[in-house]
Amino acid sequence: MTKENVQGGGEEEQQAQSKKALKKQQKEAEKAAKKAEKQAKLASEQQETEEDDFAKDRYGICPMVQSQQKLDRALVRVQDLTLEKAEQQIWVRARIHTSRAKGKQCFLVLRHQQFTVQALLAVGDRASKQMVKFAANITKESIIDVEAVVKKVEQKIESCSQQDVELHVERIFVISQSEARLPLQLEDAVRPEGEGDEEGRATVNQDTRLDNRVIDLRTTTSQAIFRLQSGVCQLFRDTLINKGFVEIQTPKIISAASEGGANVFTVSYFKTSAYLAQSPQLYKQMCICADFDKVFCVGPVFRAEDSNTHRHLTEFVGLDIEMAFSYHYHEVIDSITDTMVQIFKGLRDRFQTEIQTVNKQYPSEPFKFLEPTLRLEYKEGLAMLRAAGVEMGDEEDLSTPNEKLLGRLVKEKYDTDFYVLDKYPLAVRPFYTMPDPNNPKYSNSYDMFMRGEEILSGAQRIHDAQLLTERAMHHNIDLEKIKAYIDSFRYGAPPHAGGGIGLERVTMLYLGLHNVRQTSMFPRDPKRLTP
Amino acid sequence: MPMYQVKPVSPADITVDLPTCMYKLPNVHAQGASLGEHALQNGEVDPTVKALEERQDEILRKLYELKATVDGLAKTVTTPDADLDASTLAHTLTHTPADAVLRGTADLDDLLGKDLGALRDIVINANPAQPPLSLLVLHALLCQRFQVLSSVHVHSSVSTVPAPLLSCLGPRHTHSYARHRFQLGFTLIWKDVSKLQMKFSTQNMCPIEGEGNVARFLYRLLGAEPRDPVSATLMDGWVDTALFQLAEGGSKERAAVLRALNAALGRSPWLLGQEFSLADIVSACCVLQTGQTSSAPANVQRWLKSCQNLGYFSCVDPLLQ
């Protein structure tokens, strides 16, 4: 009985349980059935598609390119897609810049470097529904190979760099897939300053850009900036080689701070320590003493200045010039300014597309200059500043705001963004600066300015060991520390002068940008050591 | 109650560093006090009264001068066939061009403002398609008067400039490295401008536009502009006629101006009478520029020759070929 009872109770329980379970089971069964149905449907659909997809071999994900085969296929570059290529069938490799599916059509914007072109997939006799769907689902920034027919368009495509043609895609293969989530969107990164705020659209801040520099460098603006920067370097070299200069390489690990300054990086050097060169000046001058006459060098320079401004970096590329002259250091100024003018002219004539591209995001006035370059004296600069109401002493150095103001005044009168200020007060220059022969207060030194910011600081150097010693003592410099420097002038040295410019700063100022980090590929500043 | 002495708070001989951007006024209190004392004590003439008297004398003198010139003019007007041998007069004048032009007394400090220890630089923006010949002639004249630092630049808005335009201000000065040695800077910039433009002090002066206006400015620096209003007006008239009707005008206008020139030059050796002036410079340059030298009427031809004999026009020749 009890058993029964128990059984009965158990049954009851079971019944109760089973009722619940039954419901559950039923539900589950239903679910499973639905699932199965779905799966079956999907499978059948897939089957269907596999059966129906006539364009199956026209799209897909390529196996990783391990150089399995060497295809004899010419890839046309996006920038070469012009009206001349209309109606031709070509292969293009590019990144997916944007994609937009719309029913039976899919619009892609393909990008290679700074050039973009529109591509179109539409369900038809060439492309199946599945192919269009596949294309629409490729992640942004993936690299694809596309076979397409170039077609002329009736209305210019304003959003692309290739405005007169579009591609009608026939085959599409993914070469390298990008992750779906991008740390920053390219279209946000090229949005002009200020526009984002107004329309509530996103812009990318500087640190996000620099942290994800690989993607940031893909933007049209970055592409243009660094192509132009390469142009600056190239023009600098070409011009100087034409003038009979010799390119030299100088050591970057040095035993003593060359300019006696405190702002050098110390590195451990086996059992002792050494410094990173803050300028190749000593070595340039030694080459002059070694009769190379005119030398230049392009290389990194290091400044351990803990200043977080828009124009300071701890490592930058220095373009340095040193030159022996016949009788007057203005020969050197003329040489340097002419080099700069040649660079400006070269950029103006050869890099107009890049300049325009950068201007789209960062609008600025075109860089203006005079040939030959305007040379003013420091006293004149002071007089101009004083006339504008600035109060400063005769032997005082220009402060940054005054520099900018003077730049504006000069531009107003002479309409040039580039000029030389000559004859600085001796007191504000380094000890090796040659004093002015007529007035001991002044010196044979000069600064060059672009858009009111100093880009080059140079001078005639003292090439006489005795005078150099005197000047060093006057500045309270420990003679022991600069012995090697002074000694290089003991065995006869030609009169010489020179100066150095920073590549990043010149690029920044030429383009009218506002931060030197934009023109340094992987900038180093007191707060950034990566990437 | 006795009082104790206090040391002066500030020394009496304190020198105050006054800003240079404002002008000075005489001390009202000190002047009044000293004047009152003087008048009372010595009975001397008040210096301001003296100054007033001097000014009156000056005005009277000017009036007499004016009367004399008007009398002279009246003479020439009433006797149109005055027996003037123009060619000989022109000839004598060519011998003394310097006297003729440099008679004026110009002080750069008066004209351009106080020297602040910097080179006073006149900047002229000109389009290489229309070289301002008259300004080059004036530049040559300025060079005779002052130590002028001349420089030619090409602005980045212009890609190429013919060689003669680059050397139009003559060879580079041998002392050009020392800018402070010069009294005046003359900076010519070839630039893509629709209208010729001159800038001097961007703070106190708006740019001067147009070749004629700049020419007047430069001529004033020579201190040779006519004192009497009639001649001055005549001069202004000729400058405008030359630039607007000869240089820019159609063929009919040109012919009319040439006839007018011919008529005027039939009466006197130069456009303003007996003296070479800006009117001659600008008009001659315009005739030369339009290339009508050979087809010009006889008097104009003779006058052009006299102009060229002065020597200031030599800088223009290379630009005309």
From TrEMBL, chain A:
Xref: SUPFAM superfamilies: Class II aaRS and biotin synthetases, Nucleic acid-binding proteins
Domain Aminoacyl-transfer RNA synthetases class-II family profile per the UniProt entry, residue ranges: 226-531
Predominant location category: cytoplasm
Gene Ontology biological process terms from the UniProt entry: aspartyl-tRNA aminoacylation
Enzyme class: ligase
Keyword Nucleus: no
GO MF annotations, alphabetized: aspartate-tRNA ligase activity; ATP binding; RNA binding
Entry GO CC: aminoacyl-tRNA synthetase multienzyme complex; cytosol
Basic and acidic residues biased stretches: 25-40
Signal peptide: none
Gene3D superfamilies: Bira Bifunctional Protein, Domain 2, Nucleic acid-binding proteins
Keyword terms, alphabetized: Acetylation, Aminoacyl-tRNA synthetase, ATP-binding, Cytoplasm, Ligase, Nucleotide-binding, Phosphoprotein, Protein biosynthesis
Region of interest (Disordered), residue spans: 1-53
Compartmental location: Cytoplasm
Record-linked PANTHER family: ASPARTATE--TRNA LIGASE, CYTOPLASMIC, ASPARTYL-TRNA SYNTHETASE
Family label: Belongs to the class-II aminoacyl-tRNA synthetase family. Type 2 subfamily.
Record-given protein name: Aspartate--tRNA ligase, cytoplasmic
The gene coding this protein: dars1
From TrEMBL, chain B:
Principal place of residence: cytoplasm
Residue ranges of every copy of the AIMP2 thioredoxin-like domain listed in the record: 118-209
One Gene Ontology term from the biological process aspect of the record: cell differentiation
Domain Glutathione S-transferase C-terminal, residue spans: 250-307
The UniProt record lists the keyword Cytoplasm: yes
GO cellular component, one term: nucleus
InterPro entries in the record: AIMP2 (IPR042360), AIMP2_LysRS-bd (IPR031889), AIMP2_thioredoxin (IPR041503), Glutathione-S-Trfase_C_sf (IPR036282), GST_C (IPR004046)
Coiled-coil stretches noted in the UniProt entry, renumbered to this chain: none
Gene3D superfamilies to which the protein is assigned, alphabetical: 1.20.1050.130
UniProt cross-references to Pfam families, sorted A to Z: AIMP2_LysRS_bd (PF16780), GST_C (PF00043), Thioredoxin_16 (PF18569)
Keywords, comma-separated and alphabetical: Apoptosis, Cytoplasm, Developmental protein, Differentiation, Nucleus, Phosphoprotein, Protein biosynthesis, Ubl conjugation
Localisation per UniProt entry: Cytoplasm, Cytosol; Nucleus
Residue ranges of every copy of the AIMP2 lysyl-tRNA synthetase binding domain listed in the record: 1-45
Highest taxon listed in the record's lineage: Eukaryota
Known function: Required for assembly and stability of the aminoacyl-tRNA synthase complex. Mediates ubiquitination and degradation of FUBP1, a transcriptional activator of MYC, leading to MYC down-regulation which is required for aveolar type II cell differentiation. Blocks MDM2-mediated ubiquitination and degradation of p53/TP53. Functions as a proapoptotic factor.
Subunit structure: Part of the multisynthetase complex (MSC), a multisubunit complex that groups tRNA ligases for Arg (RARS1), Asp (DARS1), Gln (QARS1), Ile (IARS1), Leu (LARS1), Lys (KARS1), Met (MARS1) the bifunctional ligase for Glu and Pro (EPRS1) and the auxiliary subunits AIMP1/p43, AIMP2/p38 and EEF1E1/p18. Interacts (via N-terminus) with KARS1. Interacts with EPRS1. Forms a linear complex that contains MARS1, EEF1E1, EPRS1 and AIMP2 that is at the core of the multisubunit complex. Binds FUBP1 (via C-terminus).
PANTHER family: AMINOACYL TRNA SYNTHASE COMPLEX-INTERACTING MULTIFUNCTIONAL PROTEIN, AMINOACYL TRNA SYNTHASE COMPLEX-INTERACTING MULTIFUNCTIONAL PROTEIN 2
Name of the featured protein: Aminoacyl tRNA synthase complex-interacting multifunctional protein 2
Gene: aimp2
